[in-house]
Amino acid sequence: MCKLILIKKKEVRLMYYCIFCKNLHHFNYTKDEVVFKSGFHYFDTKLYHAGLCSQVHVFLKNEQPATA
Ligand SMILES: [Zn+2]
């Protein structure tokens, strides 16, 4: 009999350091998120990509009303 070994696949999602929230976020692959390919930030002794989450868009919208 073959013994089935179930290996729980851990979901590996990219994490980035949000320079807006100053915290780590999971990258959800939305167009509102920005992860800088060449920007990095140390957080908790680990190096993460620097990025911006969708919160920054909400903030910018409130701060700067769209005026052409
Ligand atoms: Zn954020």
Give a verbal description of the structure:
This protein has one helix at residues 55-63; strands spanning 15-18, 23-26, 34-43, 46-52. It is mainly β. It has one domain. The chain has a four-stranded mixed β-sheet, with no helix packed on it. Strand 1 and strand 2 form a beta hairpin. The longest helix is centred in the C-terminal third of the chain and has 9 residues, at 55-63. The N and C termini lie far apart (71 Å). The relative contact order is 0.22. The mean pLDDT is 87. Residues 18, 20-21, 25, 53, 55 line the site of zinc ion.
Give the H and E element order: EEEEH
What value does the average pLDDT take?
Answer: 87
User: How many DSSP E strands?
Assistant: 4
Kindly, what is the distance between the CA atoms of the first and last residues, rounded to a whole number of angstroms?
71 Å
Largest sheet: 4 strands, mixed
Bound ligand species: zinc ion
The radius of gyration over CA amounts to: 18 Å
- The overall number of domains is 1
Approximately how much beta-strand content do the residues carry? 35-45%
What percent of residues adopt helix (DSSP H or I)? Answer: 10-25%
Structural class: mainly beta
What are the low-pLDDT stretches, counting only 5+ consecutive residues below 50?
A: none
**Which word captures the global form?**
elongated
User: What order do the strands of the largest sheet run in, or round the barrel if closed?
Assistant: 2-1-4-3
- The number of distinct helices, counting runs of at least 4 residues, comes to 1
